Amino acid sequence: MSLRRNLSISVDLKKMKNARAKHGEHYVPTDLEHIANMITHGIWILPSLYGLKMMQENASSYKEVVTLLIYGMALFFLFTTSTLYHCLSFTHSEGMWKRFFHIGDRAVIYVFIAASYTPWLVLKDFGGVAELFIWVVWVGCILGIIFQFLFHHRYRTLEVVFYLIVGICPAYAVTHMTDTAGLLELAIGGAIYIAGVIFFKLDGVVPFAHAIWHCFVGLGALSHYYAINKYLVGIHANNNEQVL
User: Fold this and answer.
1) Which among 17, 40, 87, 188 is placed 20 to 30 Å from 2, CA to CA?
2) By the 8 A CB rule, do 162 and 139 touch?
3) Contact of 92 with 40, CB cutoff 8 Å
4) How is residue 178 annotated by DSSP?
5) Digit-coded pLDDT (tens) for 184-215
């Protein structure tokens, strides 16, 4: 009975995931994984637009409007690009558009990382080092995008390392914060993203690994969005700055 049960579990797992992709090949999700991948990022598209609208309505200066627009649009494009790519994958579409959105799906992560730092570096006081770290995070973003276009999917481990470098190194700026309000939420969101990276490369090992990664991204983004709204939106209302 125990052997039969183990065989049954093994068969069910095979239905939920395919074998790991070989070197230089793409992982092909099962139909169930495709659906999970679409849903777990697709459900955030409209909320991200609504969140952008709320931030813009509550912004109290031109500086806030611009930086929050950068962040909000990056959030929207992150979920939209990912969802479109997974929709094309689910329909087994091939050709230019699938490749475009596949590269875009990976490249937009760099944009989102940089855009997530931007409101903090622009709207918070970092003891004079904010401008340096803005350059660091956006140059890292550009280099990451170039890497994706040149070596897409060839060096998978290096890809993850680059994401971690671009995402973690600029966090050193927090050691210069003169006001640490929001630091806890920033740390929680960052920890969620890093924990999610564990599943980022476990396709073919853990069923629905990529969808689980999507869930971590959504939760990390939610934590950072909450922190931005609580500690950054409207902080210039009394600084006599011109409202857009």
Assistant:
1) 17
2) no
3) no
4) S
5) 999 999 999 999 999 988 888 889 999 999 99
